[in-house]
Amino acid sequence: MAISFEGYASFADSFLSPYAAKNIDCRGRDIPLPCSDNRTEYQRDRDRIIHCQSFRRLMNKTQVFLAPAGDHYRTRLTHTLEVTQIARTLARALRLNEDLTEAIGLGHDLGHTPFGHAGERAMRKCFDPTFAHYKQSLRVVEVLERGGEGLNLTWEVRDGIVNHAGDDRAATLEGVLVKFADRIAYINHDIDDACRAGILRPDDIPEELRDVLGQGHGERINTMVNSIIRSSEGKPEITMEPHILEATEALRTFLFERVYFNPVAKSQESKSEALLIRLFDYYVSHPDKMPGLYYKNTERESVERCVCDFLSGMTDRYAIETYRALYIPEVWRGINV
């Protein structure tokens, strides 16, 4: 016999820290829904995110290396899964709300552009200097998904998604956890991918950072995660021990210098930006060539806003194929009679 939502939520909340976001205190959705018999509101949000189209497209969006040919490089989807796993580990150890944490983690990059941050820069150049992927992720779940209806997620999940990056702080500790987990994940898996690509060697990482954080991928993640748990347990805030935080920030700086700004690793980024800017100009001049949802939205929003939505939702491969179809002539092979 299924228990009531109130009973299930109360049972789940009984295990949580006083500082956790309680299921029973959820601020709800813009459009109220009948309660589920066996899922919390945050579990329902998780399921809505996993089953949406934007989530599936993440598997063909760049994390660091543009449309990598190797099978083992991270994509935006595998990054999302690693962030979520780290965030859930932290949430369980700190007795925070795992379901809320998981939903935020799975949804945090839904609005990321193709070609990683190169795509983000292109949108800043041709659409809006304040464009940011975390703002676009919020727009995806509120406006664009489900044929323009949005996913109708809870307030807490939307707050965590839009505040997982940038200067603002999420209203829940679960949202703050995801912000930490995002940084832990990308610092470590981007180093791993850079070593796989031959751009780095493990011993290129400064010895003083390896001594503090650990020698390998898993050891570094374990050090960072355990530091957050030790520093945050039983407190109304999420922090990392100062010496571990200092080493983590130094490792991130090293990563920017050796990978993110590496001319070999990023040799295609200028092409990616130019490709998206040219597509932007084309669709602003030909909005009727966009899929129905984006063209329909031009009735109530600017053409530029709708073109940005269309391009931001593209996968790397789809953007390249679209550009090729519009601008690259095909070899004439004659007509078979």
> What is the overall pLDDT average?
93
Helix content: 55-70%
Topology as a string of helices (H) and strands (E) = HHHHHHHHHHHHHHHH
Q: Domains counted in the coordinates: how many?
A: 2
Number of distinct helices: 16
Q: Any idea what the shape is?
A: globular
Structure description:
The chain is mainly alpha-helical and 337 residues long. It folds into two domains: 38-260, Orthogonal Bundle (Hypothetical protein af1432); 269-327, no CATH class. Helix content is 59%, strand content 0%. The chain has helices at 5-13, 41-50, 53-57, 76-94, 98-107, 116-126, 133-148, 155-162, 173-196, 207-213, 217-232, 242-260, 269-285, 292-297, 303-312, 316-327. The longest helix has 24 residues, at 173-196. The protein is globular and about 70 Å long. The N and C termini lie far apart (69 Å). 43% of the residues are buried. The mean pLDDT is 93.
What are the SSEs and their pairings?
Layout: H1 5-13, H2 41-50, H3 53-57, H4 76-94, H5 98-107, H6 116-126, H7 133-148, H8 155-162, H9 173-196, H10 207-213, H11 217-232, H12 242-260, H13 269-285, H14 292-297, H15 303-312, H16 316-327
Keywords:
337 residues; mainly alpha; Hypothetical protein af1432; 2 domains; 16 helices; 0% strand
